[in-house]
Amino acid sequence: MSDQVLKLEEEQCRDILDHYNNPELIYKGGQRIVYRFDHPEYGVVALKVGRYKTPDNPNGWDIERIEREINILQDIDSQYYPKNFCFKKLPDGRYIIIEEFIDSTPLSHCMDTFKKPSEALNLIKNLVIGLNVIWKMNVVHRDLKPDNILIKESNLPTIIDLGIARSLDSTSITETLLGGPCSKLYAAPEQLHYDKKRIDKRTDQYNLGIILVQLLLKGTHPFDPSLVGGNSIPHNIINGNWYTSIFNEPVLSPIFPLASQLLSPKPYQRFRFSNMILDKIDSCLEVYQ
């Protein structure tokens, strides 16, 4: 994306910003700019202005995915998700989102915060509780990864980016592409095989398993070829080739049953219900008390 396009994007926000009090630029990307400002009703909020794809501009965001995320967030009232206050689709190819501002750091930038096994387990426990909010709605996140987990000062996570979340009760809007919608470094095998019939709530469990072991490895991906060989991380995920040797350490061995079940290659081998995951996590936590 050229600087000229980025500058054009910022200029395209001027008429919108005139309606808000002293917005502060906090993020600028190719097709979206985010500002922070004090809303008289909602407090500190994030104002997102972006472009969506149109016949004249194929470079924007898929409006269907934006609308899907908004629809899910509007049905949620949980500390684990940002509150959505406003969404407008403008006829000129722009959209506006006003949502709760989360003062936080992406997990991808603060994995070393969770140095102790108990800290990693408590984070995963909170993520399970948070994901259970959408699982009860029969929704699968499908893109859980460190970049999509914001860590607040309290170390509680906020789960973001439901753009490719899938309602198991609705018809898919996903195009049939090899690999399907996912972040391939954190995808479950069924996602990489694009086996839609096997994608369900247990798919998010696999993503959690990767994150759990990555935390224990101080940020190194458990399927990284530098640890286990292979051609690539997705190749190793498909072949179930991950770094189990870390659990040879006595201090970490109690977590192996939890991690190995989350990372089971077949969905039916993972946990059937969220309370089963929480029970297993609590059993592990008892070891570290």
UniProtKB/TrEMBL annotation:
<dbReference type="InterPro" id="IPR008271">
    <property type="entry name" value="Ser/Thr_kinase_AS"/>
</dbReference>
<dbReference type="InterPro" id="IPR045269">
    <property type="entry name" value="Atg1-like"/>
</dbReference>
<feature type="domain" description="Protein kinase">
    <location>
        <begin position="20"/>
        <end position="285"/>
    </location>
</feature>
<dbReference type="GO" id="GO:0000407">
    <property type="term" value="C:phagophore assembly site"/>
</dbReference>
<dbReference type="Pfam" id="PF00069">
    <property type="entry name" value="Pkinase"/>
</dbReference>
<keyword id="KW-0067">ATP-binding</keyword>
<keyword id="KW-0547">Nucleotide-binding</keyword>
<dbReference type="InterPro" id="IPR011009">
    <property type="entry name" value="Kinase-like_dom_sf"/>
</dbReference>
<dbReference type="GO" id="GO:0005524">
    <property type="term" value="F:ATP binding"/>
</dbReference>
<dbReference type="InterPro" id="IPR000719">
    <property type="entry name" value="Prot_kinase_dom"/>
</dbReference>
<dbReference type="GO" id="GO:0005776">
    <property type="term" value="C:autophagosome"/>
</dbReference>
<keyword id="KW-0808">Transferase</keyword>
<protein>
    <recommendedName>
        <fullName>Protein kinase domain-containing protein</fullName>
    </recommendedName>
</protein>
<dbReference type="GO" id="GO:0016020">
    <property type="term" value="C:membrane"/>
</dbReference>
<dbReference type="GO" id="GO:0005829">
    <property type="term" value="C:cytosol"/>
</dbReference>
<dbReference type="GO" id="GO:0004674">
    <property type="term" value="F:protein serine/threonine kinase activity"/>
</dbReference>
<keyword id="KW-0418">Kinase</keyword>
